[in-house]
TrEMBL record:
GO molecular function: endonuclease activity
Annotated InterPro entries: Type-I_R_enzyme_R_subunit
Protein name (Swiss-Prot/TrEMBL): Restriction endonuclease subunit R
Domain of life: Bacteria
Alphabetical UniProt keywords: Endonuclease, Hydrolase, Nuclease, Restriction system
Amino acid sequence: MAYFRLFVGLTALMEKIKEYGYIVDYKDLFRQLQGAVTDYTSGAFDGYEAADVAGLLCDRLSKGCDRLETTLEAVRALCEPVPRPRESADYRHYFCTPDTRDQKAIAANEPKRVAFYQAVNALIRAYSNLANEMEAAGYTPQEAETIKAEVRHYSQIREEVKIASGDYIDSKIYEPAMRHLMDTYIRAEPSNLVADFEELGLVQLIVNQGFPVLESLPEGLKQDHKAIAEAIENNIRKIILDESPINPKYYEEMSELLDSLIEQRHQKAISYQEYLEEVKQLAKRVTDPTGSAVGNYPPALNTSALRSLYDNLDKDEALALKIDQVVITTKKDNWIGNRFKEIEVKNALNAVLVDAKVDLPLNQLLELIKQQHDYQ
């Protein structure tokens, strides 16, 4: 009875963690797996009704086949809308954007990308569970090789889409285990080091290391200049969208500069090398607004919060300094998210803005202030 309770407890725990797993039977409680599967009421389950224990044990290979087929079909279904001939660029355009001038496409297509990443991750795990036992699971050598090629294809597309969209940063903590599975069961060739991309991102690597880093991109990205340019533009666009709440005016200017650069590339107004140099300078300004623009601000505006206030308050230095002081002296600990503490700051700001001539509404100013790390 105690062993049965232990088994049921382990089964319940595994159901919370993953869909199925292994229990090592050191005491031969289940005798032979085959016998346990065909006769639930023998061995450890002696004395229990068959209906009570039915379904607790199942054939691992059979379950693995079902899981592999299900996850493979799920990935195929997600990729069905990808335009033919379904080359690398077709996947990137579908999951990212066919036109990097579209400012909303990267964010709008994020749910599709997340679903794709999750489905491919599940496929990789399902395949890894059977990779060394495909023939034992009932697949012919030809079928096994076809499935392996398909899993490899989707894993490569997943990596390209993540880098092209800038999404790899968000799930970097999961990547070491996933890379291990891919390197062990899927890739036959030496794997590319993608850890640097996951730690810093494509744009920051370009700023830090220059354009030799582009040689580390997956083959489907570095094959042509257009693919590289689109990946860089998508990554810069994502940073602009993510950082815009901190300083809307500044990143609006960065977005306009990016649009202009993209248009020049489309019109072939600049060479590829000129484009790379221009995009590197833009990348520096996007990733480090303080360092790249410090000379454009009055000396008294020596924090990022002050510069953000200055940019969004019609370049009014005196007003920016006054609001900064009001916020610092008024805000309480853990004020953001506390309704009463926020109202206190809002009332103090309203008193300052009574005689000020600015276009920024009070509520928007409060939200801007809440985004500043200096005030948190």
